[in-house]
Every structure is written in C-alpha cells, then in structure tokens.
Design brief:
Blueprint: H1 2-24, H2 43-55, H3 68-85, H4 99-122, H5 126-153, H6 157-162, E1 173-174, E2 177-178, H7 187-206, H8 216-229, H9 233-248, H10 251-273, H11 279-289, H12 291-311, H13 342-371, H14 373-376, H15 382-402, H16 411-439
Antiparallel strand pairs: 1-2
Helix pairs in contact: 1-2, 1-5, 2-4, 3-4, 3-13, 4-16, 5-7, 5-8, 5-16, 7-8, 7-9, 7-15, 9-15, 10-13, 10-15, 11-12, 12-13, 13-15, 13-16, 15-16
Length: 443
C-alpha cells in the first residue's frame, strides 16, 4: 500500500489499495490482538491509510463533514457505547457487555466507515469521479477472468491460495453449476461487485469516455454475460435496471428512481413490522421464475420477521455484539435465526440509533445527488456530467437495495458512496461561492 500511495499519488493510491484489498485478500480471516480491533482486510487497510495520511499531514476527510453531517457521524461513533451501557445484563447464555465492548465496536465501526471520509475528501471532483468509476469498472472486467474460471472449475482459488474455504460450499452450487467465490467470501457478493462494475462502466460509456483499451460495448457484454453465468437473480435484476434506466430514461428519471429506492429502504423496517410490505406477493412472483428461488426468498423473509421482532425489544440502542441480536431456543440454546440482510443486522445490534446514523450517509448522498441537478445547469459538458452524476447515484441506490437481502456494504462501496456525497457537497460549495462573488458590487 505504501508503494501504491507513493507510486500513484494519494487519491489513486487509496483507490487501488482498497480495490486490491477487497478483491484479493482472504475473506473471513482476522488476527485478534488484545486492545485493538481484529485485523482483517477491511480494518487493516483503513489503519494503514489513516496512519499514512496523519503521518504525511494530509486530509483524512473528517473536516469535510460539516454541520448536521458531522453531528450524525459523531452520533454513529457514540452509539456503541450507549448500546454497551444498556446491555450489561446476560442474555440467556451470553455475557453482558462492558464499556470495552463499546470501545471495540466503535473502533471497528470507524475503520469500516473510514473509506467514506476518503471518498468525501479525495474523489469529490468530476475528474476524480471519472477515475473512480473507471477503475471500479476495470477491476470488475479483470475479475471476470477469475470468476469465469471458478464458474467452470468450481470455487477453489481461495482454497488454493489461502488454504481454507470461507463459506458454505453447498451454497455456491446453483442450477447444475457453480457460482464463483474468488476472494470475496460468497457468490452473491461477487455477483454484486460485478453489477456495480457493470453500472460504473455504463456510466463512463454514457459520458463518452473510453474505460480501457477495448471498446466499451464489448466490455459491457463481457460483464453482463459473466453476471448471468454467476446465477444471482438479484445481480441480474440490478444490471437490467441499469440497462433500462440508462438506455431509455433521462437523468432526471434515474435520480427519481434512486430516491424511490432510498425511500423504500428507509421505510422497510416499519412496513415489515406492520405487515404492510408485500412479502407474500414477492414470494408468489418468485415461484413463476424459480420454485427454488421462491423458497429461498420466503426463508429469508421468515427469519427477517423473527429477528425484527427480537430487535424491537430493544429498539433504541439494540442488543450489541456476541450474537445477542440473534434468537435462540430457550431450552437447548440452539440458534434459530439466519441473518442475511444488513438492515436487520444493524437494527438488531445497534438499534434505531445506529441504523439511522449508518444509512443516513447513504440515503443523504442519493438525496443530495438529486438536488445537485440544479448546480450542474450551465456547466461545461452539462449532459455528460448530469448523466454521470445520475448513474453514480443509481449505483449507490443499488448498493443500498442490496442491503435488504444481503450484507455487502464494505470498504469499497463506502468509498463510492463518499465520492458521491463529496461531489454533491463540492458542487453546492462552488455554486454558493460563485453566487457570493457575483453579488458583491465593485467599489
């Protein structure tokens, strides 16, 4: 990482480091030293970047948070301590929490969130936005080689290189073939990354920028074909949404869809608990596509309901760590729950305070992007800039949507979210500066 930062400069060095760590380092592996967060590919990468920026006296992104945004960030950092204070009693056979647990969770939470601040500080201009989307697209294209190999030969690369398989091998077998896992831990996470890469490449293509040395259309076809072969219906739907919205609708409509997705996500816990969300209708629709997929969706909804009911027993600050957010058999102690969606994990462990504090930045980035349309009017190359901003917002919206059935919100995605947030803040700041300058009359 130090070589990359010195070779490519701070911004590109950060981006390549996060991409390489996310895509190539082992999944589900960490080293636990006492007194510090567990060292895994996410926390260690953030630690090195933070130390480098402090040592070289460069911005860490914290100062770019202003006003209400800074208050929400501080609330997010404080929430683990409040969770610990309200969970000092035992829960069945699981110990109560201490302030040390609060400190540990706050440290881990900050290190996972830190790439958002990096995106805010280092990828907030149009040129850096293009660089970010291009590099993500190129990384996805290069990853296709490993993905296609594992689809044909079975997911073995993690075993060959690191000596163990990071998840259930059975879950990677679907419809007579394999899903690739590579080094991301699960086939669904790989499919989601390919979908993000596909959307990023589409954004660059619509902005009339060549992503790599090959024709953009050929690369789009390669990514789409790989997503289909990966056999994840969610990722296929995300890619089709990108094709339809970007291919047939204006950037204003794309922004509206992104806002609609963000609104659905925010209200999902409430509509689920009240029985308003159409779970059964979705399962019935899935039956027509695949009975196996319908069973999987129904299974997830069932366990979401159990976990949500448990989470709402401590709605404000949640149950905390050590598996206290899960549901167990009172007699045998067997774990009765399966946690898939990031939203229910966050709500169960940290309550509404952590849920709002964490997803505030994702939803606000989408909302600010919607508002930024007026700041781009009259700008140089306005159409391409508007399109790039709207597709970037759609990428973030799809990442947010994926947190309903899955848990894939990792460091690279926080960088993408932070870039969109920072771009919007920068546009508003530049517009206000121009307005202030033109309103001052000469002496």
């Amino acid at each position: 990482m130090l070589f990359l930062l010195n070779r490519y400069g701070t911004a590109k060095g950060i981006l390549i480091s996060l991409l390489a760590a996310y895509l190539l380092l082992p999944a589900g592996f960490g080293i636990n030293f006492p007194g510090i967060p567990a060292l895994n590919k996410y926390t260690l990468t953030s630690m090195v970047l933070l130390a480098y920026l402090i040592f070289t006296k460069q911005p860490t992104g914290y100062k770019e948070l202003r006003g209400w945004h800074k208050f929400v960030f501080l609330m997010l950092m404080v929430s683990p301590f409040l969770t610990s204070l309200t969970n000092q009693e035992r829960y069945l056979f699981i110990q109560g929490l201490s302030l040390y647990d609060g400190l540990s969770q706050a440290g881990i939470g900050f290190l996972h969130f830190f790439p958002f601040l990096l995106g805010l500080a280092y990828f907030n201009t149009y040129e850096r936005q293009v660089v970010l989307l291009r590099f993500v697209a190129i990384a996805a294209i290069m990853y296709c080689v490993l993905v296609l190999w594992e689809i044909r030969m079975s997911p073995q690369l993690h075993v060959y290189l690191y000596g163990y398989f990071p998840h259930s091998f059975l879950q990677q077998y679907r419809e007579g073939g394999f899903r690739a896992v590579v080094f991301l831990g699960h086939g669904l996470i790989v499919a989601m990354f390919l979908a993000v890469g596909f959307a990023s490449l589409f954004a660059v293509h619509k902005a009339k920028i060549r992503a790599w040395r090959f024709d953009n259309r050929l690369l789009l076809f390669l990514l789409m074909a790989t997503i289909v072969l990966q056999k994840s219906y969610g990722a296929i739907v995300y890619a089709l949404i990108v094709i339809v919205m970007v291919g047939f609708f204006s950037y204003r409509k794309i922004h509206l869809l992104s806002v609609a997705i963000a609104t659905m996500f925010l209200t999902y816990p409430v509509t689920s608990s009240m029985g308003i969300f159409p779970h059964q209708q979705i399962v019935n629709a899935a039956v027509s596509v695949s009975p196996e997929r319908a069973q999987s969706v129904g299974f997830r909804f069932e366990h979401e309901s159990i976990l949500l009911e448990h989470a709402l027993k401590k709605p404000l600050f949640g149950w905390g760590s050590w598996g206290r957010n899960r549901v167990y058999d009172l007699e045998t102690g067997a774990d009765l729950s399966v946690t898939d969606g990031n939203w229910v994990i966050t709500l169960g462990t940290g309550g509404w305070m952590r849920f709002v504090g964490l997803f505030y930045f994702v939803v606000m980035a989408i909302y600010l992007a919607y508002r930024s349309q007026k700041y781009l009017r009259g700008a140089k190359d306005e159409k391409n800039r508007q399109l790039l901003m709207s597709i970037h917002s759609l990428v973030v919206a799809l990442i947010l949507m994926d947190q309903m059935p899955n848990s894939s919100l990792h460091s690279l995605y926080w960088l993408i979210i932070g870039s969109l947030f920072g771009r919007c803040v920068m546009l508003k700041s530049q517009k206000n500066h121009v307005n202030t300058s033109t309103s001052i009359e000469p002496n």
